[in-house]
């Protein structure tokens, strides 16, 4: 009997290792749910889904460098004209070929979708016209020279023209319009629970290893980690830094981590004379917005101990940030230092600004979007309380938070968290997306929710955007970054890490843009 049990165990193990069903299906626990309409909410978390399903002209590689996808090649024809040559073998999931007309229609829908929660305004900035001179050629003309154009063009998910010109957001949610050209096609979608995709055998690129992928929406960090430890998922997206040690000690789990291109920062309302979430110490709204005074902004940035947040909240898996892009990007200025933590100086600056006893402030943050976002906000609040600010921290789920933050005509917030992933292959788009004055006509400042405005800085950014020569452009961007950081346009906190957990036996290629992709998961060889 003992020999029989041994042979049975060997057979069971062998079957487990070679079973195609087990080898071909993958379950990934995701921190955020996909917005099915590809043009409704522009965000990195959605882009991670879209690159696997809908597809783009270009796609970022592991180091955020742009690579061909639906476009086989691209070039600048002159200072204001770019051309993208499409692949001749790309097909949509319904079998129809991808053409330039589909690209034009997708760009048009992204630019004009009514009621979009986070429109693609920044991606369309400076684009004058998108045309289709022939079946496989896309021509984009710009108002002025626009060096980031390839990156911007790579932000627009591509769908068939017939869908782009007729489908509603609801049509995507029920999957009737959910047709893309990516490596996986849609199978089923249960809002709040899961998305199931299947390998698209007509995909032009490398054949994905997995026949079927289930993305489970597990927004709670602890629940995602528990699911990985229990074996109910194979991959855990965005592992909480506090769980890394425990996962590394489990022999059935592997932890993969690397540096991301995302800066986590605090932004302030510097526009309105009276800001809605600022009061005096008795709770009465202040008639004058303190953040319009640079001394108050300086006080706040010197009151924040970034290294302590990295060590105690991020468990060492982040790097204190000095500016709005990480090292290696065009506008990164090596001469800018992380602001010194100096509570005494912060108090003196507040007193000089007329607030020796501080003021009341509500800090708003998401609680399910960035790594440890709610805990980081609590830490910032505690540190600001030490310079006599009467702080209240309010956290909201991302589906509530971001529509409020990005509504330029709405109430907005007074002091709030945001994260920006600079996945442009080297360009400092934070300069024109986040810190340039909000200017719908020029399509600049699309994510400048605090409405910071500095004419000198704006002029420097606009000058840089006209320069196609990269070294010269980057030098101009570095100077602009220095001006913005000296003026405390924003308060950078840290560059966060990417941490993904997998069951033992799986390899994972970390992507700097924080995308957790089924195509990046392979069985260990």
UniProtKB/TrEMBL annotation:
Its main location: periplasm. SUPFAM superfamilies: Periplasmic binding protein-like II. Residues 1-23 form the signal peptide. One of its GO terms (molecular function) is peptide transmembrane transporter activity. Residues 66-438 form the Solute-binding protein family domain. PROSITE patterns: SBP_BACTERIAL_5. One of its GO terms (biological process) is peptide transport. Transmembrane segments: none annotated. Pfam families: SBP_bac_5. It is found in: Periplasm. Belongs to the bacterial solute-binding protein 5 family. This is Solute-binding protein family 5 domain-containing protein. It comes from Brucella cytisi.
């Amino acid at each position: 009997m003992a020999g029989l049990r041994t042979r049975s165990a060997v057979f069971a193990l062998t079957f487990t290792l070679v079973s195609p069903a087990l080898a071909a299906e993958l379950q990934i626990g995701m921190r955020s749910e996909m917005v099915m309409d590809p043009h409704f909410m522009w965000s990195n978390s959605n882009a991670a889904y879209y690159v696997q399903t809908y597809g783009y002209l270009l796609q970022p590689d592991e180091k955020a460098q742009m690579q061909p996808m639906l476009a086989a090649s691209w070039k600048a024809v002159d200072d204001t004209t770019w051309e993208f040559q499409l692949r001749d073998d790309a097909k949509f999931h319904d079998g129809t070929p991808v053409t330039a007309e589909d690209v034009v229609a997708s760009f048009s829908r992204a630019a004009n979708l009514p009621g979009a929660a986070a429109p693609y305004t920044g991606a369309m900035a400076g684009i004058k016209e998108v045309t289709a001179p022939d079946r496989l050629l896309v021509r984009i003309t710009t108002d002025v020279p626009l060096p980031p154009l390839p990156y911007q063009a790579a932000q627009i998910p591509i769908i068939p023209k017939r869908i782009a010109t007729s489908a509603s957001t609801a049509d995507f949610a029920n999957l009737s319009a959910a047709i893309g050209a990516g490596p996986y096609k849609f199978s089923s979608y249960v809002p709040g629970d899961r998305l199931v995709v299947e390998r698209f055998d007509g995909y032009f690129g490398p054949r994905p290893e997995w026949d079927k992928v289930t993305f489970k929406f597990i927004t709670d960090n602890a629940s995602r980690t528990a699911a990985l430890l229990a074996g109910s998922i194979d991959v855990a997206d965005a592992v909480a830094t506090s769980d890394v040690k425990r996962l590394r000690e489990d022999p059935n789990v592997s932890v993969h981590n690397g540096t991301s291109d995302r800066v986590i920062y605090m932004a302030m309302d510097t526009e309105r004379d009276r800001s809605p979430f600022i009061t005096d110490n008795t709770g009465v709204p202040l008639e004058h917005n303190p953040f319009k005074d640079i001394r108050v902004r300086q006080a706040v940035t010197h009151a924040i101990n970034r290294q302590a947040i990295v060590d105690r909240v991020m468990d060492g898996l982040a790097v204190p940030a000095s500016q709005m892009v990480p090292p290696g990007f065009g506008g990164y200025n090596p001469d800018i230092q992380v602001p010194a933590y100096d509570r005494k100086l912060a108090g003196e600056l507040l007193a000089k600004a007329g607030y020796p006893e501080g003021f009341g402030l509500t800090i708003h943050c998401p609680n399910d979007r960035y790594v440890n976002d709610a805990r980081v906000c609590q830490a910032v609040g505690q540190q600001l309380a030490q310079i006599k600010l009467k702080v209240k921290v309010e956290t909201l789920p991302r589906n509530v938070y971001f529509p409020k933050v990005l509504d330029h005509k709405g109430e907005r917030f007074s002091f709030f968290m945001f994260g920006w992933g600079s996945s442009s292959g080297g360009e400092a788009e934070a300069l024109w997306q986040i810190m340039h004055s909000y200017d719908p006509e020029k399509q600049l400042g699309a994510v400048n929710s605090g409405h910071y405005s500095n004419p000198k800085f704006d002029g420097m950014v606009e000058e840089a955007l006209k320069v196609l020569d990269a070294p010269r452009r980057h030098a101009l961007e570095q100077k602009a970054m220095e001006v913005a950081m000296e003026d405390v346009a924003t308060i950078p906190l840290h560059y966060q890490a990417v941490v993904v957990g997998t069951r033992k036996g799986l390899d994972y290629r970390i992507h700097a843009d924080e995308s957790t992709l089924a195509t990046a998961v392979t069985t260990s060889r």
